[in-house]
Amino acid sequence: MRVEIIAWLAVRAAEIVTDADDIVMVADRLEGAAVLDASAFAAEITDIMRVIGESVRSEVAFRSLLALPDFEDDASRAAVHVLSAVGMAIGIGRVTWSSRRAARQARTLLIDRAHLAYAVAGPLGPDFYAWLAGLVALAVRLISDLAANATPVVRVESGISLPSTVLAYQLYGDAKRASGLVDIAGAATPMVMPAAFEALAS
């Protein structure tokens, strides 16, 4: 069980943590966690997850916390439900969400993962459950505020397929916003955008 949890945390850290000192610190702590007793191990991996959550800066990094490999041990999967909920709750407010829709989707992902985590946390005692529920509730309030102030997404229908640079200039007066237009629309290539797609309102 410990090996699977430590491996999951190591992958998340490699994908998310960028500060050089934090990278070294997390690696050292993960190595040392394996020999701790059960109580100390739980506290240590939760705190390591806090460091990883504090390093979240992008939507990709946030979604990385959702990863659930095919664990051989059900206890590992249960622990990762809790750890990922902690990391998502800490990281969700650190992302500059591309749109109101993206922020709302992130909130839904957090709530869904939190429900899995609550099922694990409940038997661990009221104090831990209350701490986790409070952390998630605070994060949900924060992302709700961010979503309310984020840019909405609108439907664009050009009638014909055009390059993203042309459409970005027509929509925003700035051809440099073409890459963002491609990302939001989910276009396969920036050279030929769909005739109808979704884009940021401004």
List the helices and strands and how they pair.
Elements lengths: L1 H15 L3 H14 L4 H17 L4 H6 L9 H18 L8 H22 L4 H24 L3 E5 L6 H9 L5 H8 L10 E5 L2
Antiparallel strand pairs: 1-2
Written description of the protein model:
The chain has 202 residues and is mainly alpha-helical. 66% of the residues lie in helices and 5% in strands. The protein has helices spanning 2-16, 20-33, 38-54, 59-64, 74-91, 100-121, 126-149, 164-172, 178-185, and strands at 153-157, 196-200. Helix 1 runs antiparallel to helix 2, helix 2 (20-33) runs antiparallel to helix 3 and helix 5 crosses helix 7 (126-149). The mean pLDDT is 92.
Number of discrete helical segments: 9
What is the string of SSEs from the N terminus onward?
A: HHHHHHHEHHE
Radius of gyration, in Å, reads 20 Å
Q: Find the count of extended strands (DSSP E, 2+ residues).
A: 2
Derived from helix and strand composition plus strand pairing, the structural class reads mainly alpha
Biggest β-sheet: count, sense, barrel? Answer: 2 strands, antiparallel
Identify low-pLDDT runs.
none
Helix content: 55-70%
Q: For the largest beta sheet, what order do the strands appear in spatially?
A: 1-2
End-to-end separation = 48 Å
The tally of structural domains comes to 2
Estimate the global geometry from the Cα principal axes: elongated
Overall mean confidence score, pLDDT = 92
How much of the sequence lies in strands comes to under 5%
